[in-house]
Amino acid sequence: MKQVPFKLRYPILLSALGSALMLSVPTFANEAAESEQDEAKEPIERIIVTARLRQELLNKIPVSVSAYSGEQMERTGIRNINDIIEATPGVTYDSIGGMASGSPVIRGLAQPGLVGDETNVAVFIDGVYASGRDASFLPYGGLQRVEVVRGPQSAIYGRNAFAGAINYITKAPSDTFEFGVNTSAGTHGMHDAHLYLSGALTERFKARLDLSDSSTGSTIRNVNTITGERIDNRRLGEMDNQLARLRLVYDGDNTNISLSHTHIDTKETPRATAHVQHNGGFGIRNAAQEFGVLVNGTHITFNPATGQWDLLGDWVFTGDPQKYLGVVDNDLWRSSFTGVAPEATGTERKVDRTSLVIDHNMENFSITYLGGYNRTDYTINLGQLKDHAGMTILPTFVAQNLPPASAFPDAPAGLQVQNLSFGTVYMGIRGYDLGGQPNDDRKEYSHELRFAGNHNGMDWAFGAFYSKLELDQMTTLGVVGTDSYSNMIFNAAGIGFEDNGLITLQGTSYETTTKSVFSAVDFNLSDEWTMSLEGRWTREDKYANNHTDNRAPGVLFPTGQMDGSWSYFTPRVTLDWDANETTLYYLNVAKGAKSGGLNGSAEGDEMTFDPEQNWTYEVGMKSFLFDSRLRFNIAAYYIDWDKQQVRDFSTLGNHTNAVPAVIVTNLGKTEVKGLELDGRWQITDNFGWNFAAAYNDATVKVGGLGPEFGFLDYAAQGMNPTEYPVSQTLTMVSTRPPFFGVVGQMTLPPEGTLVSDGDISGNTMPRTSRVTLNSSIDYVRDWGNLNSFSELSFSYRSKQYLDATNSTELPSAVTARLTIGFETESLRVSLFVNNLTNNDTPSGGYRKYLWNGKPQFVVEPRMGRTAGINLSYKFR
Prior knowledge:
876 residues, mainly beta, disordered N terminus
């Protein structure tokens, strides 16, 4: 396989140095020139990628990679991460609720819910790791290329490249002065404006400045779809982005330096998530919510014939439904959406990212330093205009100073007020909650030093990495009463939004220190055969300080500090056969690992969770056929995934009316069998067809939810029964003659009660599509000084299950995009239509917890059809 000498190709981050490096390294410049000459003769362009932190031809890299150039994205209307994912085989994506829940899924390695702080796919921007779920949301102005790398990349990238990686590479400064604008305007409030300046400042220094202001617009208004009432004039899910990026490059004789800083300011209106009425998931009633008391005439009655106290029906020990079972379609959303609360402001994010790359090249040796600093401030305030009943507790001295419910004509029906020894309990008050996912204040810096060279035909590299993350994470809550009496009680309890705004429900400060050393060796076994050995040892030290916990009014939750350390080794072995100029065969075996961590709001055994890992075995082929008119890549793989991390809710230390702590735990074992195919057929000089398909069978082999989570309707969820292992002792109180006062105790549920055993082995992994298909046909024609172009693309994903029991189904979806336009050397004008068929399959759904401590399934709709015009002009 023809390659750039390893001493140059491995340490050089094209993502950081770009075209500046091409001018400073004669060996690479010569080969690049030869490659360009070859490409001019080929019907299909040869693409250079840096997925393995070195420059390689896409068709000669023994890794599954999809690459999209900046020009390609501008021409075809790719505007965000969702568009990239739709064009990539074996990859799906959702960000239900807001950008903070962004979660790419590669090859079925999904996370069931918001698992921890990171996804299974690492995001890198100019070579610097960007932590946090919102990292994949990046305005696309000024990008040179986007690469989606499939398969574990932990040996190369390190942290959290468990299933793969997404690389954003920004454009480097040009040698000559350039000035350009790229603007778009479209339906439903969509607009975009990007301006850039680029060129040489001196003989050695070059600079590029990118400025952009964009809005995605939205087809969804804040209207109650049940009654038709307009809540306000906001477009829901509309994201506004402002970006400023400055990049400076120094070209020395042997040393190259690149310094880049990016500032991003993002505002997003709340998503149109709807609270769905539950129809299943009947668990055992929590006796604590009734203070362990069964009252005669309410729950029990005396049977004179037997002299025993009898229950008044199964409902006494059957809890409220906790799940939605069935298909999640647009009709379900339309029949459930009552509008977004006016007090819900949405999401605001401010990001600063800085990277520094210093590369020093000697005759047979090179040294590269890569430093990065990221700062993200993220706040979120969501809430649907849907009230729910619950209870709260006030200290007696506070309750005594409040007017009675009889003074409020609109007090909720069914209200109960009880004066107990520890306070006054208000049951049946009603309100809707505000707040949402955790707010982040994140600071992270990293350093990497890499050495590389060549000795006796053996290419080698080694280095060390260090990073430190400081994260202050707070979940907020505010409740608005839907009647004046409930609102008064919420305000008195300190959670009312009217008097208190958003309070900190739970807050934890995290600190993570990561240290790793890595090495790589390439052995040229022959002119055609190459073996690569790569490995990385990583240690992570984590510390958490749970400084605030107000999850239940009147209850003092424990706070405190915890820490933990985890280390792991992630190797990769690759064997490739460069059969000829057009064909490559490869085999690689790689381990992906994701560190264990801390549950800052948990207690006891739930305070920590274990690392998860996967071993991926992949064989593949990349080739050109028919005089290079057909390019195709095919890969088959088997993934052994162990101790997978899943999102759960705490079962320890829960109190009456408390919102359960969100924790991460380890589920069990999953296996994935998959096949990917992608390529391009240049049908004629004008017509081309891009195609991609993937099949992923992600099956849970070992895993389950304990019977303490059991459901009485186990058959409806496809699970087997087992006897409920937990009993509750309740006090029986008679308020009717001939008995008064405490008359005994009762154990609930009755002995022999059957619930689901929680065994989900054999089920499909949630949030994974078994089949994904991508296809696009394009037509380009040269009219002399003018070129015309058009592209019609389709994307399909099969159904997904949204829960571990496979009882909630998201239907399959087909989306389409159309672009048509013309261009000259300096001007491009195009028309585009997104979601051409106006597909209305919801984006997804998930389960959250409400202010009253009860679960709620929500569903989010898909954006409808949008269209617009794009204008781009370059001044040179």
